[in-house]
Amino acid sequence: MAAPDKQAPVLDDNQKAAILLMSIGEESAAEVLKHMGPKEVQRIGVAMANIGDVNKEIVRQVMVDFIGTVNEKTSFGVGAGEYVRNVLTNALGEDKAAGIIDRILLGGNASGLESLKWMDPRAVVDLVRNEHPQIIAIILSYLDSDQAAEVLSSMPEKVRSDLLLRIATLDGVQPAAMKELNNTLEKQLKGNSGVQSSRIGGVKAAANILNFVESSIESSIMEKIKETDNDLGQEIQDLMFVFDNLIDVDDRGIQTLLREISTDHLLLALKAADDDLKEKIFSNMSSRAAEMLKDDLEAKGPVRLSEVEAAQKEILNIARRLADEGQIALGGSGAEEMI
């Protein structure tokens, strides 16, 4: 891509995504947003609502970045607030969109259990910190795993392992109890929600949450869980998918994964990988790309362990998304047997 004009503003990824979505029309933008998680929708929605005047050259640059083509016709004729409202409603439906629209455009709050998925993890902590641990465990089980991990990490250290134990041993919740919990949250948030009861919790849910927790916190939680119930702790650990488990993904899956991850993340992640995994990665790249990556690894100086772990977590997030979409099959001891 050509160097941007000196007067051109520097755009972050959310702003670029907002410009792209506002260039392709409401229906197409809604279809894209349907495939995103709550946090991504909220970040991009905020960027869309706050986007200022955008000239065609900036649109062209964004188009080149995302799809390699130029589309000079934009959808900026409609007001930003109206556009955001229409796109989010088409993507999420009126009930779910109402909360995030208020949050983005009006600064309001959503409602009920479902609203928690649209809240900042620390805000969730503030909301539930005085609840009974079993209630908190149910709420964490209801959240997406990555958000639940952030909430768990923000809770006091002394309660983390107890909460994860409760999640692991949770075997569903009665519809009446879920309805009561939802009604209580509605009152606290002064809103409405039609959330349906569902089977939540269990060992797999606990493992999924731990997959997203920072490594130091994860180790501390696992240690305390094993002190309480070693067998359960081992069962949770067996169901976790860690970076080293990528060696059990077949070659086609590795190739699919490599197309989705950035070279910078891969370079950082491989700094702490064992030689077998590195060779697995190299063997699924072109000879030229593999040699360049090897050279970069040798030339890369010392990096913080936290940066390496963050890169590995990001790659694992992508791997789990691809697995959920059926594009790859994750290996490891927790993987489902293929026949």
How would you sum up this structure, described in words?
- It contains 20 helices and no strands.
- With 339 residues, it is mainly α.
- The protein folds into three domains: 13-108, no CATH class; 117-239, Annexin V, domain 1, CATH 1.10.220; 243-324, Orthogonal Bundle (Annexin V, domain 1).
- α10 crosses α13.
- It is globular, with a radius of gyration of 22 Å.
- Residues 1-6, 67-78, 106-111, 191-198 and 332-339 have low confidence and may be disordered.
The CATH architecture designation of the largest domain is: Orthogonal Bundle
Radius of gyration: 22 Å
Point out poorly predicted stretches.
1-6, 67-78, 106-111, 191-198, 332-339
Task: Characterize the biggest β-sheet.
Answer: none
Helix coverage percent: 55-70%
Q: Roughly how many Å apart are the termini?
A: 46 Å
CATH topology of the largest domain: Annexin V, domain 1
Supply the number of structural domains: 3
CATH superfamily of the largest domain, by name, is: Flagellar motor switch protein FliG, alpha-alpha superhelical domain
Order of helices and strands: HHHHHHHHHHHHHHHHHHHH
Describe the secondary-structure layout.
Layout: H1 13-23, H2 26-33, H3 38-50, H4 56-66, H5 80-92, H6 94-106, H7 112-115, H8 121-128, H9 133-142, H10 145-154, H11 157-168, H12 175-189, H13 203-211, H14 215-228, H15 230-239, H16 251-258, H17 263-270, H18 275-283, H19 287-299, H20 305-324
Helix pairs in contact: 1-3, 1-4, 2-5, 3-5, 3-6, 5-6, 8-10, 9-11, 10-13, 11-13, 11-14, 13-15, 14-15, 17-20
